[in-house]
Design brief:
By secondary structure, this protein is α/β, with parallel strands linked by helices. Helices cover 22% and strands 29% of the residues.
């Protein structure tokens, strides 16, 4: 697979921390840094399998031109440098997971549960979910609903599920190519189906995929999936259409369909927050929402004069961190310090 920037902890189990950050995009990552300077620990939840949010998923190679002091930087490189910057603070990442419920505990903390039965408690929640959570686009395949979650999947949550399976992977982007490379060593057979000869993934990943194809370790079909054959939720074959070969079937146990992502508000809409035009209203002193202890930064935050810029989100993360401090350390006085002159802050950054 592509370089793994952070290690995600296994799903499930119970955790406690100071701040739960929902969203691992650039603003969520920088929030880890600003919180860390104040001695505040964080857990980060993201539905994607890697940090970076829109930067990593939608435009990893597209140049970003408005990061101060950096003439040009790609979304992928910005993510990498942010991850390196927060490394000393030991944030815990819960990737491939979605926050689905929020409740207040008897200890006056917040408890978030994910769709993979992970429970995290903290006195502070920070929503940094961009425009919402990424949701997979469903393929236009008749009857696909009957197989979802049983033999059709839109993401890989547990790699071992696919050991010794005959897998058809549909798509031409990074996700399809990455999982082709990652699952090939453990699968019985991998067949990659894409409607065009050209692939949209990173050139190095395409080259590695072609190398596997050339030695017969995977099959590649230029075709479109038109239907599924099976029963009881279990696929037996994928029905495809090719310009050169017409209609035919590919036997398979599991279909992994990577048809892209779309942004949806998701379960955050049910957290009881004050929404304005599908965004969360906040104050501009500390970017707290209408619910005490819950903050919002980045594209999801709404306030007069809001600009949807990464640099604006970085500013919001700094003020949010100072607001969160008083919930995490209610008996401590916050002392403002500059990283240029504070040996304490310099020691924290250096790890």
């Amino acid at each position: 697979m592509a370089e793994q920037l952070v290690e995600s902890v296994p799903s499930g189990g119970a955790h406690e921390t100071d701040v739960i950050i929902i969203g691992a995009g650039p603003v969520g990552l920088f929030a880890v840094f600003e919180l860390g300077l104040l001695g505040i620990k964080a857990h980060v939840i993201d539905i994607l399998d890697k940090p970076g949010g829109q930067c990593a998923e939608l435009y990893p190679e597209k140049p970003i031109l408005d990061i101060p002091a950096i003439k040009t930087i790609s979304g992928e490189q910005l993510t990498k440098q942010l991850v390196e910057q927060i490394d000393p603070f030991g944030a815990i990442f819960h990737l491939n997971e979605m926050a689905v419920s929020l409740e207040k505990t008897n200890a006056d903390k917040w408890r978030i549960k994910t769709d993979l039965d992970t429970a995290i408690e903290a006195p502070v929640i920070c929503v940094a979910a961009g425009g919402g959570s990424f949701q997979p686009k469903k393929p236009p395949i008749p009857g696909v609903d009957d197989y979802e979650g049983q033999s059709v999947y839109y993401a890989v949550r547990r790699r071992e599920m696919f050991r010794n399976k005959n897998i058809v992977i549909a798509g031409g982007g990074d996700s399809a190519l990455d999982w082709t490379l990652n699952l090939e060593p453990i699968a019985e057979k991998i067949t990659l189906v894409h409607r065009r000869e050209e692939f949209r993934g990173a050139p190095d990943t395409v080259e590695k995929m072609r190398a596997l194809q050339s030695v017969g370790k995977i099959d590649v079909h230029v075709a479109q999936i038109k239907g599924l054959r099976g029963e009881g939720g279990q696929i037996q074959a994928v029905c495809v259409e090719s310009k050169s070969e017409g209609d035919y079937e590919l036997p398979c146990d599991n279909l992994l369909a990577f048809y892209g992502l779309t942004m949806k508000l998701g379960p955050i809409a049910d957290f009881g927050l004050n929404f304005t035009e599908n965004r969360i209203a906040v104050d501009t002193e500390k970017f707290e929402t209408s619910v005490p202890g819950i903050f919002c930064i980045g594209d999801m935050a709404h306030y007069p004069g809001k600009l949807k810029l990464i640099l604006s989100g970085f500013h919001e993360a700094a003020l949010m961190s100072h607001g969160a401090f008083h919930y995490v350390f209610p008996d401590k006085k916050l002392k403002f310090q500059h990283t240029t002159s504070s040996r304490d802050l310099q020691a924290k950054v250096s790890g």
